[in-house]
Sequence to fold (258 residues):
Amino acid sequence: MSALDPSSDRPLGAQLADLIREEIKSGSRRPGSKLPSEKQFHEQYGVSRTTVRGTLNTLARQGLIVTRKGYGSYVRERRPIQRIVRGHDHRAHVTSGKPIFDALVEAEGRRPGRRMLFVGRLPVPEDVRQHLHLDADVKEIAVRKRLQLIDDEPMVISTSYYPLWYAANTALEQQGAIHQGPDALIEEMGYTFGSVRLSHSTRMPDDDEQRLLTIDPGVPLFRSFRVDHSMERQPMIVSDDLYRGDAFEFVVEDTTVE
Fold:
């Protein structure tokens, strides 16, 4: 390891953080590997244990390491799941007999699962109202919220909104999972999906999201906000998906309809 420079204007704690960060980035510190103890850092670099503790806290907030009380600090495990972002997911998977999420996860050789968090009607969120072109007198919307799992590990909080003009009193409002997936069900109802509008952003989770996804402090969420339209350009679904930022790699393959 490189020595720190006490004569630098940059504080020793910041220098140590830079060094560890570069080691993680270069791969010399592997995912899951244990970092030296505060005492070992002190002995090797001559920095106080208070400085070491502050450095490790900084790296933990940045999502690079995990500190387990009584066990030490570890480089965060990173097993990225490739998520191909397409506009024609429906075309590729509607005949699979499975939800789109399940088909995509199985294509990666992983095991999908889910836990339903809510199924019912809620007041229409204003941004959802705008995207679905709902009139002001429409007060409620059908909502399906679930926790998506991969190999039994929580990975995505998915919330989907369905206008009541077609979803009311259908299987979209039934409790429990829909075996073929809601999208295939909608096509069975006589609608055909066409264009898609996707927007992506990142943010930090709130306490409830952090609990549901069992993520450590410092891990951001990747938000995928999707509006699916019919072939007649009628907005049909708003999907608001919150992915664990430490678990996915997003690849934009195609956003056109074939």
